[in-house]
Write a structure and sequence with these properties.
It is a single chain. The chain has helices spanning 3-18, 24-34, 39-46, 50-68, 77-87, 127-146, 151-158, 162-167. The chain has 2 domains: 1-112, no CATH class; 126-169. The protein has 169 residues and is an all-alpha fold.
Length: 169
Amino acid sequence: MNTADILEFVDEALNAKTGKHLNDLQRKIIEGILNRQKYSDIAGTYGCTAGHAKDVGYKLLQLLSEVFDEPVDKGNLESVLERQLNLNINFGDRNPTNFGHSNTINYINGCSEIPTPTPDKSQPPNPESQGKKNQVKIEAVGKLRQLGLSDEQIAEVLGLALEVVKQMD
């Protein structure tokens, strides 16, 4: 996911919760944090003092903590956004909280290079690890229902049979 998509997601989440949009400096701060820049570097790019950028950055991170209902700071912004993006899985027009345009978000890359995933062929899947994966899916069903997803949507996302999802109460 590129920076523009991340900024769009944050702006939409902020607007949905507060009715406000990100301003230019807030956008630069998010972009700078994801690129591991210091506030002084962000300020130089935007054309303000480092102190002003730091103050706005602190307030922005506090606001994002409220929007995402978890602590957000400069050190964990990327992880928080990754979690939040994964919670807001896109189901097309059926989902009123339709953020972004892709069906699956694997990671957020704040840097310019995109890593190439390499499949792990070192060990074949074993029954114990498969059981753990199924348990995680079972636990996810309840969480996804709390987010208002239908059984059909949950089955599609988790790769489970619809009958299996309907049996889980």
